[in-house]
Prior knowledge:
Elements: E1 6-9, H1 12-19, E2 25-30, H2 44-54, E3 61-65, H3 71-81, E4 88-92, H4 95-104, E5 109-111, E6 113-116, H5 177-187, H6 191-196, H7 209-223, E7 245-247, E8 253-257, E9 267-268, E10 275-276, E11 281-284, E12 293-294, E13 299-308, E14 315-323, H8 344-353, H9 366-369, E15 378-383, H10 392-399, H11 401-415, E16 419-425, H12 429-439, E17 445-450, H13 459-467, E18 482-486, H14 487-498, E19 505-511, E20 519-524, H15 529-535, E21 539-540, E22 549-554, E23 558-564, E24 569-573, E25 580-581, E26 595-600, H16 614-618, H17 625-634, H18 637-642, H19 653-657, H20 664-676
Parallel strand pairs: 2-3, 2-4, 4-5, 7-20, 15-16, 15-18, 16-17, 19-26
Antiparallel strand pairs: 1-6, 8-14, 9-11, 10-13, 11-12, 13-14, 19-20, 21-23, 22-23, 24-25, 24-26
Helix pairs in contact: 8-11, 10-12, 11-14, 17-20
Amino acid sequence: MEDYTKFKLKRKEELSPFLADKDKLFVVACNKCFKEFEICDEPEIGQFEQLAAEQGKTPVGTARIDFLCNKTTTAKQLQAVLPEEAENVFVISCGLGIQTVADLLDKPVYAASDSISYRGNHGMALTATKCDACGQCYLNLTGGICPIVDCAKSLTNGQCGGAKNGKCEVDKTQDCAWQKIYHKMEKLGRLEDLLNQPVQLRDYSKINYKKISEYVKSVRESRFEGYYGGIHPSERKEFTEHMPLVRFPEPDTVVIPLSQHAGAPADPVVEAGQHVDMGQKIGEAKGFISGTIHSSVSGTVTAVEPRLHPISGAQVMSVVIASDGKNTLHESVKPAGDLDSLTPDDIVAITREKGIVGMGGAGFPTAVKIKPPKPVDTVLLNGCECEPLLTADHRVMVEYADDIIFGLKAILKASGASTGIIAIEDNKPDAIEIMRAKTADISNMEVVVAKTKYPQGAEKMLIKRVLGRQVPSGGLPADVGAIVSNISTVKAISDAIQKGLPLVERAVTVTGERLRKPGNYLVKIGTSVKEIIDYCGGVTSDTVTSDTVTSDAVTSDTVTSDTVTGGDVTIKMGGPQMGFELCDLNVPVIKGTNGLIAVETIVTEPANCIRCGRCADVCPMELKPLYFTKYAGTADWQGFKDQCVMDCIECKCCETICSSKIPIVRMIKIGKQAIREGK
């Protein structure tokens, strides 16, 4: 099937003769309401302008409008952008948009595109106007009135003679489409064009609507396979997925925050001037939900003071250590013994003492997770790594498969679960092959291959996809008998037991279209982000100015920066969907840092919500994010509660496909904070 994805520009052979006798052109295009997985301007206007230029014509203006079929918003926007001198309006959209514009204007309106769709319904606006998606739009010949949809017989060359009093003989409640076409063309002064045009034959080799409908049904069934909603953003993993993990050069100084986990910050147990060894405890967990912190190098503590945290953006108590370059191991760093000799409580205690927390993002203390208050039967390892660009977990699976198996066995023993499942998305065939080979002879382990979809790796989505269980609103995986753990976290458990090594380093993907030398690295906790970006060649920038980047090393098109405050490059810690934008690169890698990405800055101007419902269509938690945008404007925190805002996982699916470019997740975070503060 040819993919028109709602519509595509008519062929040059069709448009060139049509343009020949027309001038003072205005071009308006719809930004394709169903292009829900990309935030971009569609290319057809540029293609049309190029074709017009070949005819010696330059349009007097152009406009791109989201949801062109929404008559109310389109009328307002056309009024603002349509020049008075425009004589001929060419519309690039599906039939709905063309008919809408034709109905609004008293100028000649022409269809510059053909419309077909086998991925979804045409038009997101509530309108009686229809488009048959026939793939051969006639609206440029009929003044914007569709003979296929509006004529009960779909006649393309004039009326049948069966109309009476302007009504169709087939349906007496329906106006005769061809009488409407004649009246419209006469009003436009184009009646002679209509009467003298060649006979129009339908091309029945085009995909018919029945086939389209069947395809739409099959696509939607596969789309909701596993769990509701989700999106398919551009993966861009090809930058680093083939690159092995390399040990990052030893940092001269590390800054180790005492808050790298959910819960209370650790209390410092060292002071300035003190010598520490690698793996030595420097922060004591404070309470049940907290995490122990260890030194990632050997050297001298130069300060215990507040430093900028990369995620919270606040100043948090941190331990600054000048490395001696020796990496002398602390006496506590020694193997814990054979797994068979360890009790479940031993494993939990080691996990707590070695400071292991969830390394997929939230940083929840692993010791708490693997000893849940309720019985569990399954441990799910998240090998999906569904965020675009990131490949660190992928490489850990490929290069440390035995450690992952060991770590999974440890969690199974600690939790009392009977089954271990490693879930991997189907875009990682090498990891799937390796993990299947490693688990082939282990009776209580299996590898499940999941169809790639974001946010597959979110624990509630993964549980539903793999186990078919629904975590209740406000609930935890343990409520449905499951534990979900990240691949790198399990590797850290293996290191803690087999080597006695605390969580002092982790795999980090450093990548992005704006980074010179992407790669996958094993990085010491506390290493400066600036050092890493500089080591990877810095970022490429088109707009290097004092207003956008303050830098200590700038070449012609490369920026190695201390502080990024704007411009055309955005650096995030994490992935492009859920990562945190860094305004200052003088911050450290922490336990939850799975990636550092340099991507192109996307600047958008939010518009009013048009209530299209696309955000609800893709929300994996089955929420209705459009209500959050409404309630945020009125500070209606009860409304946020009623719509279960605390269930939101902040995956940004809604924000990614929002036609109005509304920062929905920012509003959600404001609502959550207000609720936490008791407002």
